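pasting for the record
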Amino acid sequence: MNALVHMAETEVPQNPLVPPIPELVIGLIAFAIVFFFLWKKLLPSINKVLEERREAIEGGIEKAEAAQQEASDVLQQYKDQLAEARHEAARLRSEAQEQGAALIAEMRAEGQRQREEIIAAGHAQIEADRKQAAQALRQDVGTLATELAGKLVGESLEDHARQSRVIDRFLDGLERDAGNAEAGSANGAAR
């Protein structure tokens, strides 16, 4: 036992970082077995999952780019349609303004025509009323003049033909006197 103790005492102290050789060999063999198992069984599964994920990401990027391009196309279509709609609205607004102006001009012309018709009808009515009033006045004045003349003369002027001639002469004389009086006052006013 002394020899063992002595050997233990004389033995070089072993470095704790360097494992003993049998442990190192067993560890390397175990590592090789685990590595071989992982390399043959687990690594292809991991590579397959990673490849699928890479393809999915690339496909997603392609889909996103396609969707972005489609969205860009749709946006351009929308902008084109919006510009066309604005142009159409401006054209319709312009047409409506033109139609409104034409309608206003037409209504003004129609109003002017109706106004002229009303004025002409009013003048015709006034002229007809004036003639009717003059005729009624002539008859009334004639009747009164005949009665007055009959009273002055002392005989009846019942003869209608004579009565009409007398009335017409009397009224014509009154109209001449009235015309001369107006002309004289107009000449006096002109001086």
